[in-house]
Amino acid sequence: MSANTKTPVLIVTGPPGVGKTTVAGMLAARSDRAVHLESDAFFHFIRSGYIEPWKAESGAQNRTVMGIVAQVAAAYAEAGFFTIVDGIIIPGWFFEPVRDALRQAGHPVAYAVLRAPLPVCLSRANSRATEPLEDPEVIEHLWRSFADLGALEPHAIDVATNGPEDATGLLAARLADGSLTA
């Protein structure tokens, strides 16, 4: 099977609190054979020497973790799973290396950036039942990282007024029509 006929590995990203994990999980549940990789979980495997990923000194750690995420995603995709990677995968920082690693492994890539207003993201990130992210400066900084996508702007999906089901439907439709191909 050539890379052009394979289902793309889908990268779902956006700021904290936008609904990445919820929507990615719901989309995976719609498939008969799917994997939902939460890239944040890979950071938690580090038991000693961990650096918060938004800190300036975390660059080498972050590149290592995201490289591993790309390898795992490629392995699942190679095994025939519809593979969804969710996380804060910012253009100019992690998107290109992850995309390139997946392509080099022979897998097409789709990229979706979920967007909602900053107050919505702040509220959702603070109200998580597990691992709330309460620092508004970190959330705002990451939110701004997705404000100007340049050439990747067509990959943005506004989920500001959509519940999780509707947002999942929008994402599924955009994936199906090929407009998220990266």
- The coarse silhouette is globular
Q: Average pLDDT, to the nearest integer?
A: 90
Q: Please give the count of helices.
A: 7
> Proportion of β residues?
5-15%
Structural class: alpha/beta
CATH topology: Rossmann fold
Largest sheet: 5 strands, parallel
What is the assigned CATH homologous superfamily? P-loop containing nucleotide triphosphate hydrolases
Please give the alpha-carbon distance between the first and last residues: 19 Å
- The tally of domains stands at 1
- The helix/strand order is EHEHHEHEHHEH
Q: What's the arrangement of strands in the largest beta sheet?
A: 2-3-1-4-5
The total strand number stands at: 5
CATH architecture: 3-Layer(aba) Sandwich
Which CATH top level class fits? Alpha Beta
| Contiguous uncertain segments of 5+ residues | none
Rounded radius of gyration (Å):
15 Å
Please give the oligomerization state of what you see. single chain
